[in-house]
Amino acid sequence: MATVEELKLRVRELENELIKCKQKRCAEKDAGGSQKHYRQRIEKMSAEVVDSNPYSRLMALKRMGIVEDYERIRSFSVAVVGVGGVGSVTAEMLTRCGIGKLILFDYDKVELANMNRLFFQPHQAGLSKVEAAEHTLRSINPDVSFETHNYNITTMDNFTHFMDRISHGGLQEGKPVDLVLSCVDNFEARMAINTACNELGQIWMESGVSENAVSGHIQLIIPGETACFACAPPLVVAANIDEKTLKRDGVCAASLPTTMGVVAGILVQNVLKYLLGFGSVSHYLGYNAMQDFFPTMSMKANPQCDDHYCRKQQEEYKRKEAERPKQEVVVVEEAQVVHEDNEWGIELVSEVTEEELQAASGPKPDLPEGITVAYTIPEKVNAPAGEMVEETEQSLEELMSQMKRM
Amino acid sequence: MADEATRKAVSEIPLLKTNSGPRDKELWVQRLREEYLALIKYVENNKSADNDWFRLESNKEGTRWFGKCWYIHDLLKYEFDMEFDIPVTYPATAPEVAIPELDGKTAKMYRGGKICLTDHFKPLWARNVPKFGLAHLMALGLGPWLAVEIPDLIAKGLIQHKEQQNNS
Ligand SMILES: [Zn+2]
Q1: By the 8 A CB rule, do B138 and B42 touch?
Q2: Residue B125: what are its φ and ψ, rounded to 5°?
Q3: Where does the sequence pass through the membrane (chain A) (predicted)?
Q4: pLDDT value at position A31?
Q5: Residues A175, A181, A183, A187, CA torsion sign
Q6: For A121, A153, A181, A289, which has the most beta carbons within 10 A of its beta carbon?
Q7: Marked catalytic residue, from B5, B27, B92, B116
């Protein structure tokens, strides 16, 4: 029997079909029914400079000695989770670069309220973001293969499917994807991606734009090696705004196409460097739009991370490192001073007094100037303040019906 | 920053012991029992304090929750349906509570009618994993949100009182 969720999804699909049909009819009226703007697929990337070759300027990177083997771009599969302000632009850049395969995940639909951001167009309002994106991207570059999933990855059923596509959605079906890109806008989804990638040992990149729209960051996460998303409280780029002047009342989040475009740009740049092996790949790169400051840093995985798969991956990494023949010493960037005072003005708790605030704060990791944590967590709290639930003999079913009768 | 009344209400909600999410089989059932025990206690507390303001129930797996919450303003009861899914990363991350019928009426909401919690909520939740459960989410998240947003929405004429809700 179909569940309400399944029926909702079906309605959604049919709505999408209808919108597409309407659009197609409009387009036919405009263009006299021709498909002349769509180019044919190109079997092999060529460096030949002719006006019909979309890859000539990319292949020039090879001639100039920047990239050794640009054609390898076609052998990679990248999953983009979240096709909003950052994810859609990220997907477009990768499409134009000629990536082999893109897997897009998003449960949202295009709204007119998104038009302050790049990529989507007003006539796509109502379509699911993944479907609208695939449509546009395919017309930009038909050489890329696309796979789209219109669901929320953080719920039970979808998460299992999500894990399966990460581990089997490679260019060659059955192989894992080469990279996962997190372009989501919330903590829950980031943690879900983190959980999946720690379990699968999947390398991924995190990206984010702050809710005040004037800072952002990207981060490379190699499970077991570099800090995962659960290794420390969320890292944020200090915007250096006086908290007292920052008015949060009345709105959730602001957004700017500029900041999102910059973050998508530094994200895809890092992806290209990582996949094609040129330049140095950033472990963490922040963007402070107020001061035009780009702090960078590198952070090792935390042996006390709450995610046990992260700790397991760390063991695995240590084992591999020990087995590896010794190479020349890698110079590690020196960690900079810790800010003892709260100069970035993070103030976070619901505690009322100064002592309570002190008690609720935890150690701050060693971070370079311009990067901080969204909050700190105290080391083990002694006795929990308050009583714990009392054990009863009642079964879950009994408790459920007791709650229902209230 | 939570007010005194909220702090008191929260301190009377029993804390949870089992650090387990929906992907764990047996331990999740144990966690769910604790969730229900804490919720029942919280609703009882609210009733005896003459401040009964929500009901919640879940599917049998405890992964999808739905219910009603209400707010009394000028002696009139305004009632709303609420819903949320338990994320796979629960209890490390709190669920996002949604009131779909208010979607688009206030800027203090994300897409789909998910309420926008204060900056204080996330650190507070993170510091109290796994002791905080859904009852705490109601008390520290949804409760304060309704208290701020509903009077504002009424004042702006964006929500009207439904006649049948009159007998509160
Ligand atoms: Zn970790």
Answers
A1: yes
A2: -65, -50
A3: none
A4: 53
A5: positive
A6: A181
A7: B116
Q: What is the pLDDT of residue A206?
A: 97
CB contact under 8 A, B1 and A154: no
Q: Say yes or no for a CB contact (<8 Å) between A349 and B85.
A: no
Average pLDDT over residues B116-138: 90
What are the residue ranges in chain A where pLDDT is below 50? 32-34, 334-353
Please check the confidence at residue B22 and state whether its pLDDT lies above 70. yes
CA–chain centroid gap for B64, Å, is 13
Distance CA A238, CA A217 (A): 11
What separation in Å is there between the alpha carbon of B61 and the centre of ligand 1?
28
d(CA A216, CA A212): 10
The neighbouring-strand residues paired with A218 are: A207, A285
State the pLDDT at residue A35. Answer: 52
Average pLDDT (B55-80) is 95
pTM for this entry: 0.85
pLDDT on residue A1? 60
How many whole angstroms separate alpha carbon A177 and alpha carbon A170? 4
Amino acid A376: pLDDT: 85
Q: Are A137 and A124 in contact (CB under 8 A)?
A: no
8 Å CB contact between A137 and A146: yes
A195 C-beta neighbours (distance < 10 Å), count: 26
Condensed to tens digits (0 to 9), the pLDDT of residues B43-61 reads 999 999 999 999 999 999 9
Kindly give the distance from the C-alpha atom of residue A229 to the centroid of ligand 1, in angstroms, as a whole number: 6
Cβ atoms A196, A202 nearer than 8 A: yes
Instruction: Enumerate residues 6+ apart whose C-beta is below 8 A from B119.
Output: A248, A348
Torsion of CA A97, A298, A376, B36, to 10 degrees: 50
Residue B158 CB: number of other CB atoms within 10 A? 13
* A21 tagged catalytic: no
Asked if residue A285 lies in contact with residue A218, where contact means CB atoms within 8 angstroms, the answer is yes
A184 close to A193: Cβ distance less than 8 angstroms: yes
The band of B119, judged by pLDDT with boundaries at 50, 70 and 90, is confident
